[in-house]
Amino acid sequence: MTAPTQSETDRVVIFDTTLRDGEQSPGATMTHEEKLDVAEVLDQMGVDVIEAGFPIASEGDFFAVNEIAKRTRNAVVCGLARAAFKDIDRCAEAIKPAARKRIHTFLSTSPVHMKHKLQKEPHEVYEMVIAQVTRARDYTDDVEWSSEDGTRTEIDFLCRCVEAAIKAGATTINIPDTVGYTTPEEYYTLFKTVRERVPNSDQAVFSVHCHDDLGMAVANSLAGVRGGARQIECTINGIGERAGNTALEEVVMAMKVRNEVLPWWTGIDATMLTRASKLVSAVTSFPVQYNKAIVGRNAFAHESGIHQDGMLKNAQTYEIMTPESVGVKQTSLVMGKHSGRHAFVRKLEDLGYKLAGNQLEDAFVRFKALADRKKHVYDEDIEALVDEEIATAQDRIKLQSLSVIAGTHGPQRATMKLVIDGRTVIEECEGNGPVDAVFNCIKALVPHEAMLELYQVHAVTEGTDAQAEVSVRLSEADKTVTAKGADPDTLVASAKAYLGALNKLMIKRQRTKPEAMAATP
Ligand code: KIV
Ligand code: ZN
């Protein structure tokens, strides 16, 4: 089969907002280092624009965007700003070191948003559009303007705002489906209409930005492209506000696998999709749904006898793309207590991880300890171990030891030793069951008001010596965080997960400026 010719007019810009819209979703907090790791992978995989954060939101966001701007080699680095000059100025300062920089400034244009959120009349909003884009153009030639809640905006007003934004210098026009309300046919017509009716529409690239509230984000994005948009805003694993955003891996592979009916192309190296998915899942502690398209654990698994039989005869019977094409490596390297550092590093590479320095040393020590306790160390064990290593590298509270007395005669009792900012503390507590005793120790050693919203245990592999992977979600005021912990001992895994969530909450407390976040999209 000959490769289809790729014309520049069919090239779709991939704008990744994992670090902004993705990180904004409840519980998906990333540390500074984690954001840098994610940005590096996005840059390597060929993302065209990295939306690195919302610089006015907090000092943490500002420094992350600023550092990503310094380090990124290929992609355009973009920061988000509301229609206020202080937002735009701060954003411009954060992205200043980037070789290629973009300011993304947005304003609501729908009747419901203008009336209740902005409390402004349409003519005031119209003037603000011109002012915000003009201000952003003082700093860079690459300015994106978004009509927030674009799909619920009156078409005449939308066209007027788009025309004004382009006239003021916007080079990309994004029409978001902020509330995940549109349908493919509707979104297609919206882009077609706006592009036909706005006289200067040929001077800007049009962009789709979809939320998945009705499960149509990917279909809607592709429909918008059919209507003439040439930029897709998306996130790894589809993380994002509420039900999430368009999943990068899904739109990219849809265009690749079904190019005869979706005749557009991107610069993404699809063999890095699995690695990016695993990294984002690890740093956010958001598990990837097993049956998730492209990157789910079962995406290439064939269970039924009929399917297995077909696969053995010819893989194309039930496979529309190969696992290798999205970076799934079929490895035959079985790991155990005799495996050395070299084999461990190779296994990590096969699984898509790139660790170095202390992180690699620590992961190897953890692997050896696990192999001493467990006969077979499976790929899933190593993934859980490395994910935890990545997620806990910056933790201020660390578990040093835990012992628990449990059984039929309560009350159960736990003794826990923690290291908090280098200081060792110890506590002994009772509880209504061993998990309760463990969590009571944590509450005594690290007093806090956070509520436990989710406690979930699952086995990483099969067998009674399998590692337990525990997920914990904590919420405090308007902040929600999720963390995972893995260990062959379920109670140790529980303690690690709870402490991981507390560590994330501490980061979030430091970075949130409530007044700056109040009007975020
Ligand atoms: O969903 C939305 O409208 C947004 C904008 C800021 C683009 O995230
Ligand atoms: Zn959004």
From TrEMBL:
Q: Which PANTHER family match?
A: 2-ISOPROPYLMALATE SYNTHASE 1, CHLOROPLASTIC-RELATED, HOMOCITRATE SYNTHASE-RELATED
Stretches the record annotates as Regulatory domain: 398-521
Which species is this UniProt entry from? Rhodoplanes tepidamans
Q: What InterPro entries does the database record attribute to this sequence?
A: 2-IPM_HCS-like, 2-isopropylmalate_synth_dimer, AIPM/Hcit_synth_CS, Aldolase_TIM, LeuA/HCS_post-cat, LeuA_allosteric_dom_sf, LeuA_bact_synth, PYR_CT
What's its catalytic activity?
3-methyl-2-oxobutanoate + acetyl-CoA + H2O = (2S)-2-isopropylmalate + CoA + H(+)
Q: Which domain of life is it from?
A: Bacteria
Pfam families assigned? HCS_D2 (PF22617), HMGL-like (PF00682), LeuA_dimer (PF08502)
Subunit-level organization: Homodimer.
Report if keyword Amino-acid biosynthesis is assigned.
Answer: yes
Q: Name one GO molecular function term.
A: 2-isopropylmalate synthase activity
What is this protein's function per UniProt? Catalyzes the condensation of the acetyl group of acetyl-CoA with 3-methyl-2-oxobutanoate (2-ketoisovalerate) to form 3-carboxy-3-hydroxy-4-methylpentanoate (2-isopropylmalate).
State whether keyword Transferase applies.
Answer: yes
- Class in the EC hierarchy, top level: transferase
Print the keywords alphabetically.
Answer: Acyltransferase, Amino-acid biosynthesis, Branched-chain amino acid biosynthesis, Cytoplasm, Leucine biosynthesis, Manganese, Metal-binding, Transferase
What cofactor requirement does the entry state? Answer: Mn(2+)
Under which pathway is this protein filed? Amino-acid biosynthesis; L-leucine biosynthesis; L-leucine from 3-methyl-2-oxobutanoate: step 1/4
Q: What is its EC number?
A: 2.3.3.13
Q: Which residues bind Mn(2+)?
A: D21, H209, H211, N245
What would be the name of the gene that encodes this protein?
A: leuA
- What family does this chain come from, according to its entry? Belongs to the alpha-IPM synthase/homocitrate synthase family. LeuA type 1 subfamily.
What CDD domains does the record point to?
DRE_TIM_IPMS
Annotated Pyruvate carboxyltransferase domain ranges read: 12-274
Protein name from the UniProt record: 2-isopropylmalate synthase
